[in-house]
Amino acid sequence: MFGIDLPGAGLWTTSVGSLPKPEYLTRARARYSRHEIGRAELKELELQATKEWIEFQNSIDTDLVVDGEQYRGDMVAFFAEELPGLEIGGLVRAYGNRYYRKPVATGPVGRDHAVTVKWWKFAQSLTDKPVKGMLTGPYTICDWSFDEHYGSRRAFVLDVAAAIRDEALDLEAAGARFIQIDEPAASTRMDEFSLVIEAMEIITAPLRAHTITHICYGAFHDAYPRMLDIPVDQIDLELANSDYSLLQSFQEHPFTKYLGLGVADVHSHVLEPVETMVEGIRRALKLLPADRLLIDPDCGLKTRTVKEAQAKLTNIKKAVDIVRAEL
Q1: I need a surface site. Which of 38, 75, 170, 267 has the fewest CB within 10 A?
Q2: Average pLDDT per run of 10 along the chain, which is 327 residues long?
Q3: pLDDT score at 162
Q4: Which DSSP string corresponds to 136-153?
Q5: What is the full DSSP assignment across 283-295?
Q6: Is the peptide bond before 225 cis (omega within 30 degrees of 0)?
Q7: Among candidates 181, 186, 182, 190, which has minimal Cα distance to 209?
Q8: ∠ CA 64-66-68, rounded to 5°
Q9: What is the pTM of this model?
């Protein structure tokens, strides 16, 4: 693994991963589920939406770009549909009124083809800025799935970790310099946190890319400072949602990695003022140098409207420009 050199005064702008789908794509996905259109027609619209999100990020000069995951529904089901040994089960509620089809492990989980590489290559072809490779972590895939094969959570998680490692290696071979492995479930069961660490080591050990994990929703206050043992270069955390309260823990136990600093609450329709974001960045700078901070929303923006997401990302960029000028 190696670190990254942030340009200028540092403070790279980025996004966590998912971005909202435009209405035409949402309608098309519904039509596809009813067998009213074919996969080729749907894919063309997914490519169009991806291109539009890359163009938007280019327009506000985002430093580290994401493809927006326009071709994905749920972050776990997407990989379950592609990995042998996993099948898609019935609908369960994830949170609020959002549902997903919970995968089921019916046999040994493996990987027989690249899942995200072509999408990453397409996105990277549209921008001169680096594009993150985006993967769902093995612990989260297993925690959000039923197990009808293994009978051992550790065996299940480690098999999935090997499959995700192979995907990460293919992304790196394709040219990805930044690879994010999302683990939102990592802090939900602290008695299994060592398994999160063990699985991540399988993925990141052979990589030279800058590796990132994103943690959200769980009791990540309880996971600190243990989370610093996760073998990645960067941890991305939702901080705006909790008024940056985790920063207090950094005073007792210094944060030793690159930090993805969430400064926009993705669960709120309210657009945070630029000055509020500026103050959040200033608070983090009291504890970490600018060249170890990347500034983004708290989590993926898929639950917001396109206009809301664009406004939040635009304000993040404005806030970073103000702080960079101060530095």
Answers
A1: 38
A2: 58 96 96 95 98 98 97 92 91 65 94 97 98 97 95 97 98 98 90 96 97 83 90 94 91 95 94 97 96 95 96 98 94
A3: 98
A4: E-HHHHHHTSEESS-S-H
A5: HHHTTS-GGGEEE
A6: yes
A7: 181
A8: 155
A9: 0.93
Judge whether 132 and 123 are in contact, CB under 8 Å. no
Residues contacting 167, CB < 8 A, separation 6+: 111, 114, 115, 116, 117, 135
pLDDT of the residue at 1: 44
Question: Which pLDDT score, from 0 to 100, does residue 99 have?
Answer: 67
DSSP assigned state of 131: B
Amino acid code (one letter) for 23: E
pLDDT of 217 reads: 67
Per-residue confidence (pLDDT) for residue 123, from 0 to 100: 98
User: What would you measure as the largest C-alpha separation in the chain, in angstroms?
Assistant: 57
Q: Residue written as tokens 């997401």? A: 309
> How far apart are the C-alpha atoms of 209 and 48, rounded to whole Å?
28
Domains along the sequence of the chain with CATH: 12-71+117-326 (3.20.20.210)
| Closest CA relative to residue 224, chosen from 210, 240, 235 | 235
